[in-house]
Amino acid sequence: MKARGxxxxxxxxxxxxxxxxxHRTQLERKRLAGELREVFRPDARxxxxxxxxxxxxxxxxxxxxxxxxQVADLSASRDxxxxxxxxxxxxxxxxxxxxxxxxxxxxxDALLRVATPSAFASYSYEPVDTKLAAETKAGSxxxxxxxCELLHGMQGTVPAEFHVVTPARPExxxxxxxxxxxxxxxxxxxxxxxxxxxxxxxxEPVPHCxxxxxxQHCDKRxxxxxxxxxxxxxxxxxxxxxxxxxxxxxAAFATAGTLPAAPERGRAETYxxxxxxxxxxxxxxxxxxxxxxxxxxxxGRGLCRLPxxxxxxxxxxxxxxxxxxxxxxxxxxxxxxxxxxxTRAYKALWALDPTAEKQALETxxxxxxxxxxxxxxxxxxxxxxxxxxxLRRLCARHDTRGAVLDEFLRGQRFxxxxxxxxxxxxxxxxxxxxxxxxxxIGYPRQFDLRVAGxxxxxxxxxxxxxxxxxxxxxxxxxxxxxNRDDCLATAHLRDWLEQQRAERIAGGQIIxxxxxxxxxxxxxxxxxxxxxAALRDALTRDLPAPEDRNDEQRAKALLxxxxxxxxxxxxxxxxxxxxxxxxxxxxxxxxxxxxAGLVHVRTLKRQGRQExxxxxxRFPVQETGVKDDDNLMCTAxxxxxxxxxxxxxxxxxxxxxxGEITIALPDHAAHRLPTAMxxxxxxxxxxxxxxxxxxxxxxxxxxxxxxQRDPALDLLMRRPPRLRQxxxxxxxxxDAPAALLRLCRALDGGVLPVQGxxxxxxxxxxxxxxxxxxxxxxKVGVVAVSHKVIDNLLxxxxxxxxxxxxxxxxxxxxPDDRVPRAKxxxxxxxxxxxxxxxxxxxxxxxxxxxxxxxxxxxxxxxGQMSLAQVLAFARAARNLVLLGDPQQLEQPHKGTHPxxxxxxxLTHLIGTDxxxxxxxxxLFLAETWRLHPSICAFxxxxxxxxxxxxxxxxxxxxxxxxxxxxxxGMFLLEVExxxxxxxxxxxxxxxxxxxxxxxxxxxxxxxxxxxxHPLTPDDVLVIAPYNAQVGALRRALAPLGVxxxxxxxxxxxxxxxxxxxxxxxxxxxxxxxxxxFLYDPxxxxxxxxxxxxxxxxxxxxxxxxxxxxTPEQMRWANGMCRFREVATHIRVDPAG
Length: 1136
Known about the structure:
This protein has 1136 residues and is an alpha/beta fold. The protein has 36 helices and 40 strands. A seven-stranded antiparallel β-sheet has the order 16-22-19-20-21-18-17, with no helix packed on it. The chain has a seven-stranded parallel β-sheet with strand order 25-26-24-27-28-23-29, sandwiched between helices. Strands 3-4-5-6-7-8 form a six-stranded mixed β-sheet, sandwiched between helices. Helix 4 (80-89) links the parallel strand 3 (71-73) and strand 4. Helix 1 packs antiparallel against helix 5, helix 9 packs across helix 10 (268-287) and helix 24 packs across helix 25.
């Protein structure tokens, strides 16, 4: 920010800084006015980083010159006119290009000429930024988007893409995926700079504080104000709640000791804990002594989690950098242990690249396995959840030593001392980090923290810049000394907790030790893991480096990762089970996999063939993912299984609206009925794993021969559809069902992907093709991720009009009136030969024998089915037809997998960097029969590269006579509220007031044929992201007769003339499950595209400018921001 006349000139970096901290913008204004001096701290590393950045940029430009491109270097100029002249001349590359307008000025690293028409004729320019960091941050994108806007003014067209060149790889970003969010931040910045008087801002602690020149100034302000952020573990929503209730300082809250009224945000118990914490901190401040108060002893918590010390115990600490490469790097694994002679040893395993990271992981886990043999009672102590999570992530990423980690997780050998401290004591300190605790427990750190911090920053900078050869031994020694201190401090903390335990026992308290769990897996599990490990090694052993591989070698490497997919899923499911069993009770209500606060109401005795009694519980409103077909498990704290096994129960009935659940539980559970249970993670059956392993063994033995007609290999290799003769995906004037049937008939042992955006008739098109193939005498099957999806497609097949109806069968026990059920699997297979279309899940089709092979297997919702799963059952058919749309709901998976092995089958074919099928990849259904053109335009722009259009007649669709949403398109009803998380009564009231005039006499909707219909309750669809809000809306709308209320998942594939969407949460900070869920573009796509005429979003205004840290988060937020730009803003009568 610089002075320009009476105003200011802004740089692209000012946009990024404003996103990071709005208070910083106001401090910059004060600096320009001479009211504040920037605290400049010279840093030789920043200067070195600048020089390296210039080197990286020069190297990139040299590669462009080597390609024969004409380069104009404008580094000697700061006049945008020079850039404009170079653009007029049509230069291929413009380096150090000055760009500017009345407000912004910046210099782009490079502008690339592209073949997109503009004011200059048949070409235009896109900006490029060269970045040293391997991981691009949100601020970098805001800078480039500023350049895009400045280029728009100069060339008359917005660059379709912009580019980031890192040392690892070039990255391209679609401007439309980020531009709306950029405009929100830019407009906010303009207002913040121009407002008189300046807006009131406060230096709330944010991540940017770590690198801000004003940090000391802001920290002093918070301390002078005794700000609530000084309370240990307090969060911003808690601060807002306390301020709302008139408790703006730590001292005021500590003195009050409790909230004056029930909180709007969070639970009362949380504020009681924070008040206790504030009181202890105030006491420490006034007395000069840090108080330590013991918390009550509870079975299975706190000191009851502390194992007996063992000579074999290990104390672990990782040093990692998430910005090295695209997956981060755990560059140092440090651990301390006791030698045989009683002396304490320390080991540092360095890993400066992914290969060394894998070696360090194997070395450490092999060390643990050998040590366990000598010390069967050992435990691994660490501070915080990071170490366990990192080990799970590394085992999955490198596909190694997962069995060893399983043993230690199964035996509950990891001990998180941070959890033990929080459950055992409360201390008058500002944070419960290891460094803060060291002062309390008396650990004398041996290496200066300031020097260690600088050493870590230097080392990580070298890693991020790819300068590993510049990491000196001195730098390594300094970082290792810091890590050693952390390991020894962890050991000291364990001993301090032992002392606390001994003192309490001496005082008469009884504190049990946790039992040591079994670690040995079965011989069968060991043999299976060895088989998969050997197969992966055989597939990948002789492959060149990733950048040197051809298509066949890349496919073999991917298959090497995929053969362990189900093993990783199974491990992750068990790891998640262990995590949920040990989750502290105070976190149960916030855990989506949990159903917490269970209160026993009555017992229903077993009847007839029922094996167990059923127990009826009530529970409070909460955001839970528990579904009525889940099996539930008890937490370790409440599990009373007589043999030490895990207790589980089945749901007999679940009513989220009334807050009541009936659970069938084994007899021993009656001795201690649960107050919380969690959904048992799904464990994939062995049959699916065996099938993909067999595929891997076939490729190991015979290779990936190009002439094999094998759909599994074509899918793996991402080959285009294998047709008997060349043919376009669609002839001019040919409708989609006819095109698909023609392509299926021409398919010759390959894979045909079909991408069907909302309303394009994917199900109808697939059903018509199936009916046509059956009429040709072909054997056809259907598979999908769920029985419900299978039923939908089979029902559509049976409804296809023809000379005679097509018979369908579904291999499923649960009844459905639309689709007959097969007696058993054998009968279903026999019916295939008699012209029956059979549907079943993957676990049915993997059992099909070679002699029973289908001609065609249709995979519905292939955008939600993992690549590994499709490959597993691909051998069941000669041809695969994949129906789906990755831009709608994503495929769920539990595990962490290597890159490329974690995607859905259809995403694999399209490509993770693309939104739609290319012309020769498969059939893209480009016409929607559902959406009004104004809704279609939004959907097409954000999710389908502008390829989706509405068929003729959709423009007739409209609403009339309501006085609120007359016409068609997007509407926004903003509702002010605060503190709401998973439920909002304000939005429920607003939606009820909105629906009343929609259903009044004279309200109509017109379909695409021009027919006019009265609006009825069935014409209104109401969607909410959270189950708690769904229940609240059902209660609020029941008097109006509106019953179509549910989550996005429930209504995928459905439609209505009017759709209302309740965003529910008051702010991004309030949103359960964070930005990733509420702002998920897939969910917003499904929600908006249910509407034929009108889509109404009901939302708090605070949701439209979330703070983001990554490009992915910015893309999520962009959809909401773009919606607000195109929507018609409406208001409802508060009186209703």
